[in-house]
Structure formats: structure tokens, C-alpha cells
Amino acid sequence: MVIVDVLALAALAGWLYLALGHGAFWRTGPGLPERDDPPEWPEVAAVVPARDEAAILPETLPTLVAQEYPGVFRVIVVDDASGDGTGETAARFTDHVVSARERPDGWAGKVWAMSEGVRAAGDPDLYLFTDADIAYAPGTLKRLVAEAEAESGTAGERRDLVSQMATLSIRTRWEKVIVPAFVYFFAQLYPFRRVSRDGARTAAAAGGCMLVRRAALERAGGLAAIRGALIDDVAVGRLVKRAGGRCRLDLTRDVVSRRPYPRLADLWTMIARSAYHQLRYSPVLLAGTVLGMLLLYAVPPAATLAGALAGPAPAALTAGALAWTIMTLSHVPLLRFYGLSPLRAIALPAVALMYAAMTVDSARRHRTGRGGAWKGRTAVPVQSGKTARAATATCAESAPRRHDDRP
């Protein structure tokens, strides 16, 4: 029982730090504050990368085009070599539809499509990078821009990136199991309050809704600086913050993803396609991640059970039960945000083990040449050996380890 006691105490120490010293990651937050209108509304260009999205665009694109905005606002849809009539569908709602040119070597598919939208946008003051499956509540664009233009902080500066994490679909049984945990783990890796704090090293964004100041993006090197990034949102956040930009990240109900994930296999693929990329294709980081997840999520319930069977009040029972309790309580706010029963939080250890399996599977897919596969192609043309490391070098350079990289 000595080993079990030590592991249980280590898990408890980890959860005490996460709960008390890790940027209050478990809090869903109030969202964007109310701001006064800026003296002048800047020009905004929304860039929507779209590949085989003809089915979903009629549900989402009208909500973006219909945003009532006092300044100049254009919606640019980038048809990324679609085979289902995406371009024709988008043209029903916006006059600005461009076809992406052939993707150069070393560029991830989505980042290349984003850059094609930037090329077509001219010189707006702000880019709104958003996804084809994202729907916007009325007034969302005005609130985003008002937050970006508000002079705040100690120096009274404006924000260079305002990002909103979309509310994801939880209509199916598996979505209700996986999605809240997905947001929970993201917030654990990149606490929203740390991202939004000036001077904090933590940097991230949510790709469904990223309002980025053009001058700040160009000062940081532009999208070419993250051309190989499979996780484009985190890369953009790091890029802007590393260049001295001020950022804000929130969870919101005003931005909603309409993308369904009806099967476990769909959710599994969504997560596994990029997990190993985030670990920089490192077996050492993979092993550390899996062991860390086992310690934090598997040890508390296992120690609680072992301690209960061993006799009266052993250390394993006490430490394991406390760690499991803290873990459970930390998951409740997100479950409530999604309108789900708090009792689901008790099963978080099982869901975490599924995520660990997805991460291992991500490495397996990479080893078999299917890493980053999405919408019928791999995200970067060549992803093996030295070329894989070269393709991610720019992202790694723009986001040194001092930032809170995914473990």
C-alpha cells in the first residue's frame, strides 16, 4: 500500500495546484463585458475557410452576413478545393467567394485557406477568422469589435486578439460525454484568465471565432509564420502574444458550432488528428502525457477503492477521495454551462482515459502515415521524419516552451 499511498498523495497535490493555482481554469467566466461604442468603427473582413461545407453553410453563413455592424464589413468565403459545390452555395449569401490556389508544400490546409482569405481581403483593420460551421447570435460582431477597440489595461491599450470559444453540439449521447470534457481539458491546458491577462505567458485562441488586428498579425510575421500548424488557433494566439499583442479568450453562447458529431468515431477522429502534432511528434512527450493523465485521473478513484478495501482510513483512501472530489467539483461548472447533470462529473476519470487512448491513437496514425488526416487529405503534404519536424519548426519557434504548451 505504500506505493498506492504515495501515488494518491501525488495526485492530491496535483489537484490542489490545479484547483487553487492554475488560473481558475474550471470557471466558465462571465463572457465579454459591456463596452461603449468606439469613436469610429474599424473595417472588418470575416474570413471563412470552407472545404466541402455545402451542407452546413446555409445554416450558418446567413447568421454572419446578417450581423448589423456600423462600419465596413465583408464576409469572404474561401472555397478550399471543395467537391460538393461549396463555392456555389456560399455565393448565394455573399458576393465575396474566392477559390484557394494550390496549396504549397509545408502549409497546413486550413492555414493556407486562411491566408488566401487574407490575400483577398485587402487592408481591413481587423480580420474575423471563423469556421464554416459557426453560427453567430445577433450583435456578436459589435461586441467583439467593441472589446477589441476598448482602451483597457495599465497602459490603456487596445486588444489585438479577441477570441470566443464556441458552444459545441451536445445533441447525441457521445457528444454529451466527450464535448464538455474537450472544453474542460482545453481550459486546463490554456486557462482563459491567463490568456487574457497582460504579461502572462499562456497564449491560445479558439479557431471558431478569432478577431485579430491586421497590424498585430503583420508585425508578428503573418500567417506564413505558422504555416505548418495543424492547431491553427493556439498557434495564432501564441504568435500574436509573443509579438507583444494583448489577447482575450472567453467561453460564450453567442457563437455556436452547428457541426454534429453523431458517432464516437467522429469525435475520436476530431481529437486524434492533431493530438500528436501538439506533442511535437515526440514519443517522450507522449509517454509523459499518458503517465500524467493516469496519475491525475486514474489514481484517485483507484486509490479510493484500494484504500476502502485495505482497512480503516488509510492514506490512499483519504488522499484518493479528496483528489477525486476536487476533480469532480472542477468539472461541474462546464457541465452546467452545457445544461447537463452535475452527476456526470463523477465519470470524468473514465472520459480522461478515453482521451489518453485518443492521444496514443494519434501517434499511431502518424506512424502509419495518416497523421493530421481531415476531410480526405493530410493537413500537411509530407509529415514524416525530418520533413515533419521542419513543417512544425515555424510554429515551435513562434511558441517557445515558456508558453503553456499542451503536455
UniProtKB/TrEMBL annotation:
Positions in coiled-coil regions: none
Pfam family, one: Glycos_transf_2
EC number of this enzyme: 2.4.-.-
Keyword Disulfide bond: no
Keyword line: Glycosyltransferase, Membrane, Transferase, Transmembrane, Transmembrane helix
InterPro entries named in the record: Glyco_trans_2-like, Glyco_trans_2_hopen-assoc_HpnB, Nucleotide-diphossugar_trans
GO molecular function: glycosyltransferase activity
Domain Glycosyltransferase 2-like: 47-219
Chain segments annotated as transmembrane: 281-299, 306-327, 339-360
The keyword Iron is assigned to this record: no
Residue ranges of the region described as Disordered: 367-407
SUPFAM superfamilies, per database record: Nucleotide-diphospho-sugar transferases
Bias kind Low complexity: ranges: 387-398
UniProt cross-references to NCBIfam families, sorted A to Z: HpnB
Protein's name according to its UniProt entry: Glycosyltransferase
Organism per entry: Actinomadura monticuli
High-level lineage: Bacteria, Bacillati, Actinomycetota, Actinomycetes, Streptosporangiales
